[in-house]
Design a protein that fits this description.
The chain has 82 residues and is α+β, with helices and mostly antiparallel strands. The protein contains three helices and seven strands.
């Protein structure tokens, strides 16, 4: 099992703060994204044309990062400010 957390505008668009996914073996983060697309209605609408950042266990990663059972994945848009 992994926990995926959503933040900022992505959280608002999905109307979802987190989701748990059964995972019995390691997969890449891009594999996790595929699972999310299959399980969350509106995934493509919420993520289309929006750059996203990813973290696994609070460490910034790219889509080829390995995700293992028990990990926490965070997905969020880049933060801007002034």
């Amino acid at each position: 099992m992994i926990t995926v957390l959503f933040f900022a505008s992505l959280r608002e668009q999905l109307d979802l703060g987190s989701i748990s996914i059964d995972l019995s073996a390691p997969i890449t983060l891009s594999g996790v994204i595929q699972l999310l697309a299959e399980q969350i209605d509106g995934w493509y609408d919420a993520t289309n044309n929006q750059p996203l950042l990813y973290a696994v266990n609070q460490e910034m990663v790219t889509l080829d990062a390995q995700v293992c059972p028990g990990d926490e994945v965070a997905i969020f848009p880049p933060v801007t400010g002034g």
